[in-house]
Structure prediction request, 460 residues.
Amino acid sequence: MTDEPRLSRRKLLVGTGGLALGAAGCAAPSFGAEGKTRLRYWHLFGGGDGANMTALVDAFAKEHPDIGLEATQLQWGTPYYTKLGMAGAGGRAPEVAVLHLARLAGFGPGRLLDPFDLNLLRELGVGADQFPEVIFERGTVDGRQYAIPLDTHPMVLYYNTDVCAKAGLLGDDGQLRPVRGAREFMDALRTAKKTTGAPGLCAETTGPDCVTPWRLFATFYAQLGGTVLSPDGKRLALDDAKALEILEFMARLTAEGLMARRLDYPGSIGVFNAGKTAFHLNGEWEVSTFTAAGLPFSMTRVPALFGRPTAQADCHAFVLPHQDGRSDGANEAAHTFVAWMLQHSVDWAKGGHVPAYVPTLTRPDYLELEPQSAYRSVIDDVALDQPAWFAGSASPMWIQLGAVFSGVLTGSRTPSGALREAKKRLRKLLDTPDPLDSGPGGPGGRALGSEALVGEGGAA
Prediction:
């Protein structure tokens, strides 16, 4: 394949314009620019993440003048995945892209995605043994590696250090004292409420496409050892007793006034940012927001309230969207880019994400990041969704169960009623064929029908 000159080495396309121009780029031949190897990269990072990614892309391009890197930012969520799926199906996709790891099962590995060459990555200094085994294996399908994890972004506990100090919740080191169990956590919230006069905890509880209630449930349910689906993602595996224990706990938080009852996502950020509450449960990506505001805060892992120290999470991962006739030069450039990004993931960690490339976690410059490095040990205790086409970040499961469990926090649903509705919606999702599947037995895999549902404790 010969190289065709192009004028620009790198483009950053944002919002609606990015979608339109990206569509044209989808159909363009994968040629180089001025003798360079062309490398198109699609991602969905905006805000602070977008700024960090732009800086990394610029640094890579400067160090690799022989690679014509074109980075395209597309709209987060369903628009991104729809476009990426269409590009892979047409075989005219970008050379490399970002995918949430928990969405891999529904993305047609082997059809919409091409596998990585692990030998080539090893030559570039990146090996499978340099990642947490569980996370790396989630990128493996039928013995081939279709996703290389960049990070994990777990649920964490933010805390206002001024409020917690006044409430006597900090240790001599200025960090939050260990919280052991749900009872101690509720006691800490009561103590904080006495200090401020406001609920001790805030989080997103309502609003359009509200997913935090699902993430709260998934975190604490996983701490009990529960799973929502079977390991292959094809059958319902909810344990009624464990699920009810968590839903009743969530209901008590708001019913007793320990957690703000009605806040959409921006509202929850605003309340914590205003110093009105002691604690905030969310993904770690808001660290830049609170730092920029000068808020006195820190972060820690979600306490092990129900036994195991797990936290709900997903991972950003690199994938190779399917191309018809991927050239050797473009393939090597894509692998070079992925390896370089992993080896420079300290800069990516500034936005709060925990690097999946384990050597980064012991680097002095990473350990100096505060509070980002304080919760790094969660990398070994993340709870990802089971592999199903409807699971993972921005997925139908997150949105639908987020809406159901929102009612538990706002008081419009009882825990038992929410559990019944959640199971009903999960059965419907399981009965719905994977929209990216090529048919029964195809690469995408079709979920089994409701007649195949099984569950623990009579949950089915």
In short: Confidence is low (pLDDT under 50) at residues 1-31, 438-460. The CA atoms of residues 254 and 272 lie 16 Å apart.
